[in-house]
């Protein structure tokens, strides 16, 4: 007889399986719900199609790559990337012709940063630089003999433990971890195995290797910054200013002076370092080169510069000081908390605790007004020379190390035959200069044009500020051989000379008086030229005599308040739109603004603000919209069957009547999806056969680090280096390269370029922004934008506007003057739109006063569209993902109704929140629905004229399909559900069987 199974074993087994399958089923259901809620992000990450196209025509190509293979494309990218750094790096100092170094020089690369060069800032713009050469490789490729012992010391020896923190890819938010962390000089005397494996010998110490590689010490000084946190004065270890030298760096330079024939400093930073050490004899620096962040291939160009294969021609995009704290904007740069802020008081604040963003309880004041960078330093200098009242104690020579626009060359240039005149027919000035290379090597020269407008009694009485000079044009020569000449001609529209009068005329005016135009090498040279034209000399305190021969005087007879009060692009009236930036708008006393009429009496100071009810209304607008009283807006047609496809609209004007037929087909739900879920894409609209697009980041080239989809073909040097080239032709070519990269990688929208202003040297995202100067920023951006968009890529210029700090930047309130906003902080955006043709913008987190930028109609509609003529669409900055919603967090800072009515079109979110709000809360509201329709129009128009339409014709249609991962998850859920049911069935069956068995084997007395 066979032995029977152990009693109850089946029940135990099926009990275990039931619990196991139930847990797995519950987990799978939860996971599926999370994935479905984040479907947009999952599809982007997996590159999963959500539709199929029917009738696609591969011959219908509207935008083509310039290259037949990836290899050709990447080779060209590398060439342009190297040229970019070669023309953007700035030679700051070159005593006794230290550079270029002789061929075959034996050099030592000092500092740990030599083996950890900063190629890109941190955050969303972080880019793949895995193809970048090491600094040692770059130097050896141009023929230098690099100290292997020192290199091994940093990579494998005792020096390897001194990693800069935070390093690339880590968060800047943890300020307690910050330290430059340079290797102490004492450690250079430790034993180390030589990297030269052929020798294979142990040497006494690292320092003894210097004699064999003593032609030059090349010292790399690096500072890394990025999204999320600004740099601060102290490094939180020894309290030193993070943009000055640490004690270890000072000791290292002193060691270099003792040990090497010459010392060359490379400044690997986009935040302007304090340059007091460069001319201090204690450190013995012979030459200095600013190299910014180097991207994939910039180090090759830096090595070429040191070897003399490339003659540097870059010019500074910021004023470099001995002491950065002299900037007036730094007084109130970091965020201030409202005196009555309470994060937990949900009746007043949308704080972090209840779905708000970290800046909601904070504000900042731009009390310096227009006096940013050289506009402050050069203007106060001129007032000192002219003996202006209340100018105070100010010594330019001990304050500014290198002025804006400064840059040296390995050759010399002679300028002559300055010409300038006003052309009434074009309402512009033409400036020309003959430039001759008088040196012994080929090189490029930059000619900069500046203007000065009269600072009048009217200005002083009505709060208009005028800088001593402002950049208004520039030109760069071709590569001139020794003895070769070129005439550089610069056209300056007279409109550049107008100023914004926010208090009286409330528009742009051109005042009566004398205007000066000058050709100069840098901003300080320009001021000196103008002062010379006024009769001032070094006897009056000038740092050097200017050249009046390079200055032209234009006299405007009558103040003109009309000519520039009308947009030359759209014909719309230009008038005040940004009143909310003024503190009096909320009932506060008028904010002190720095004025050159009284430097000492109006210097910025900290201002304590208690948020009043009027301000709180604007700070906390979430779902405050209840309809527009008296509105006569009618609901638009939706879901019609007009037989239209987006392919039919390719190339048609924005106001073509066929758009109405197309838009009538779109359903409310489709519009809600398109508006509410714009995270790194524009959504598919099946009713009109619009494909989904891929949009991603890119201030230094196309990058998909956030979505993890693909690597870029090339990472370019940072935007500071781009601007420092002063070469719009080169920047257009950089843009074309980026456009080609995106075509190859299948992307249609680029989150960039970024063009906020270097308000101070301490912004975490200065590497993403071009300059302290809006004119230079705008011209360089316009060229780059034109190049990128030539490949059917629509750019989102960002962050619009006033995202000039990372300190509590997410919804921080900003107070300043409309003149400052228009002349300094909006001008670069304006040029990118009106001259570069930028299609789209990404809004800022920042508030204008208390109003979030995306909900500010004056900014997003009246200025951006009414004055500048933008026809593309507006996207918010990051506004949430499904993870927030799944944890019960509702983001409340970017109200969808207020944003739509102000002119914002899409929310950078993968969550369902904004789409659900539109469907559940606002469906049926004609004003919101019409705003959604207009947003849909703008998005569809942009995509219809992009590379996303390659292969689409009028007959191409889109049919939705279920992504494979959704099918897989559903199958897993179903299978696990079946297994749960089977296990429960079997468990019940086993339990019944066991009960029956017990009944049969029970004692007789227990049976009836």
From TrEMBL:
Stored PANTHER family: BETA-GLUCOSIDASE
Any Pfam family the entry gives: Glyco_hydro_3_C
Transmembrane segments: 964-988
Protein name in UniProt: Glycoside hydrolase family 3 N-terminal domain-containing protein
Limits of the Fibronectin type III-like domain: 445-523
Record family assignment: Belongs to the glycosyl hydrolase 3 family.
SMART domains with a match to the protein in the record: Fn3_like
Keyword field: Hydrolase, Membrane, Transmembrane, Transmembrane helix
Signal sequence bounds: none
One GO MF term attached to the UniProt entry: hydrolase activity
């Amino acid at each position: 007889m066979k032995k029977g199974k152990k009693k109850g074993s089946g029940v135990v087994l099926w009990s275990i399986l039931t619990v196991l399958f139930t847990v797995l089923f519950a987990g799978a259901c939860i996971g599926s719900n999370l994935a479905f809620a984040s479907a947009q992000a999952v599809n982007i990450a997996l590159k999963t199609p959500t539709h199929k196209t029917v009738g696609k025509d591969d011959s219908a190509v509207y935008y083509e790559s310039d290259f037949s293979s990836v290899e050709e494309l990447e080779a060209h990218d590398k060439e342009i990337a190297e040229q970019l750094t070669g023309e953007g790096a700035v030679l700051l100092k070159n005593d006794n012709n230290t550079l270029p170094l002789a061929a075959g020089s034996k050099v030592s690369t000092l500092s740990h940063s030599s083996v950890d060069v900063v190629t890109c800032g941190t955050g969303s713009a972080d880019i793949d630089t895995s193809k970048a050469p090491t600094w040692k490789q770059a130097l050896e490729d141009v023929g230098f003999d690099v100290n292997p012992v020192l290199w091994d010391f940093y990579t494998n020896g005792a020096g390897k433990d001194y990693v800069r923190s935070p390093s690339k890819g880590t968060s800047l938010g943890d300020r307690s971890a910050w330290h430059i962390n340079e290797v102490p000089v004492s450690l250079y005397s430790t034993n180390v195995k030589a990297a030269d494996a052929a020798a294979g010998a142990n040497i006494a110490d690292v320092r003894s290797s210097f004699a064999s590689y003593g032609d030059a010490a090349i010292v790399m000084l690096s500072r890394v910054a990025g999204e999320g946190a600004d740099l601060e004065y102290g490094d939180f270890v020894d309290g030193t200013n993070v943009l000055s030298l640490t004690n270890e760096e000072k000791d290292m330079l002193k060691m270099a002076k003792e040990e090497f024939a010459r010392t060359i400093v490379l400044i690997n930073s986009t935040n302007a370092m304090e340059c007091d050490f460069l001319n201090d004899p204690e450190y013995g620096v012979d030459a200095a080169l600013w190299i910014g962040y180097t991207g994939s291939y910039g180090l090759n160009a830096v090595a070429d510069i040191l070897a003399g294969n490339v003659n540097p021609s870059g010019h500074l995009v910021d004023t470099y000081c001995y002491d950065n704290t002299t900037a007036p904007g730094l007084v109130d740069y970091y965020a201030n908390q409202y005196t009555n802020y309470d994060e937990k008081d949900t009746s007043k604040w949308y704080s972090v605790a209840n779905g708000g963003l970290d800046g909601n309880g904070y504000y900042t004041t731009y009390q310096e007004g227009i006096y940013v960078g050289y506009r402050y330093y050069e203007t106060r200098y001129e007032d000192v020379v002219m003996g202006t009242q209340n100018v105070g104690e100010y010594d330019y020579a001990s304050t500014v190390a290198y002025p804006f626009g400064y840059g040296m060359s390995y050759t010399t240039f002679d300028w002559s035959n300055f010409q300038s005149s006003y052309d009434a027919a074009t309402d512009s000035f033409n400036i020309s200069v003959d430039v001759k290379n008088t040196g012994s090597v080929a090189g490029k020269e930059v000619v900069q044009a500046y203007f000065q407008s009269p600072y009048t009694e009217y200005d002083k009485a009505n709060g208009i500020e005028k800088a001593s000079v402002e950049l208004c044009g520039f030109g760069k020569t071709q590569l001139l051989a020794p003895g070769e000449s070129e005439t550089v001609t610069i056209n300056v529209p007279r409109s550049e000379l107008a100023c914004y009068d926010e208090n009286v005329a409330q528009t742009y005016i051109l005042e009566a008086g004398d205007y000066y135009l000058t050709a100069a090498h840098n901003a300080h040279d320009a001021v000196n030229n103008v002062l010379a034209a006024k009769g001032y000399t070094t006897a009056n305190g000038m740092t050097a005599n200017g050249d009046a021969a390079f200055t032209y005087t234009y006299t405007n007879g009558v103040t003109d308040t009309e000519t520039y009060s009308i947009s030359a692009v759209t014909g719309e009236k230009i008038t005040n739109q940004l009143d909310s930036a003024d503190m009096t708008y909320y009932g506060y006393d008028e904010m002190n603004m720095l004025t050159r009429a009284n430097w000492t009496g109006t210097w910025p100071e900290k201002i304590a603000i208690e948020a009043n009810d009027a301000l709180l209304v604007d700070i906390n607008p979430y779902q405050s919209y209840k309809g527009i009283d008296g509105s006569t807006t009618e609901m638009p047609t939706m879901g019609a069957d007009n037989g239209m496809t987006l392919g039919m609209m390719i190339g048609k004007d924005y106001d073509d009547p066929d758009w109405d037929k197309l838009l009538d087909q779109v359903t409310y739900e489709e519009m809600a999806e398109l508006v509410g879920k714009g995270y790194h894409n524009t959504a598919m609209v099946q009713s009109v056969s619009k494909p989904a697009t891929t949009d991603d980041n890119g201030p230094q080239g196309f990058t998909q680090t956030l979505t993890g989809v693909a690597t870029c073909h090339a990472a370019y040097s940072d935007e500071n280096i781009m601007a420092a080239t002063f070469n719009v032709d080169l920047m257009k070519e950089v843009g074309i390269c980026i456009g080609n990269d995106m075509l190859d990688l299948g992307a249609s929208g680029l989150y960039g370029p970024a063009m906020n202003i270097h308000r101070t040297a301490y912004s975490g995202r200065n590497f993403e922004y071009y300059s302290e100067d809006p004119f230079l920023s705008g011209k360089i951006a316009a060229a780059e934008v034109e190049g990128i968009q030539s490949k059917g890529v629509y750019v989102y210029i960002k962050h619009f506007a006033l995202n000039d700090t990372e300190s509590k930047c997410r919804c921080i309130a900003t107070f300043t003057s409309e003149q400052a906003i228009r002349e300094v902080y909006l001008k670069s955006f304006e040029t990118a739109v009106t001259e570069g043709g930028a299609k789209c913008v990404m809004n800022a987190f920042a508030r204008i006063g208390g109003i979030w930028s995306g909900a500010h109609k004056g900014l997003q509609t009246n200025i951006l569209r009414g004055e500048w003529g933008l026809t593309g669409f507006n996207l918010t900055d990051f506004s949430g993902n499904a993870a927030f919603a799944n944890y019960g967090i509702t983001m409340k800072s970017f109200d969808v109704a207020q944003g739509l009515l102000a002119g914002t079109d899409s929310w950078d979110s993968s969550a369902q929140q904004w789409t659900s709000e539109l469907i559940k809360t606002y469906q049926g509201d004609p004003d919101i629905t019409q705003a959604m329709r207009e947003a849909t129009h703008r998005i569809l128009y942009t995509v219809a004229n992009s590379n996303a339409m390659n292969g689409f014709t009028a007959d191409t249609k889109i049919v939705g399909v279920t992504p494979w991962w959704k099918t897989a998850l559903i199958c897993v859920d179903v299978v696990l559900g079946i297994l749960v049911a089977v296990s429960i069935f079997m468990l019940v069956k086993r339990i019944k069987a066991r009960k029956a068995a017990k009944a049969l084997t029970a004692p007789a007395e227990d049976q009836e």
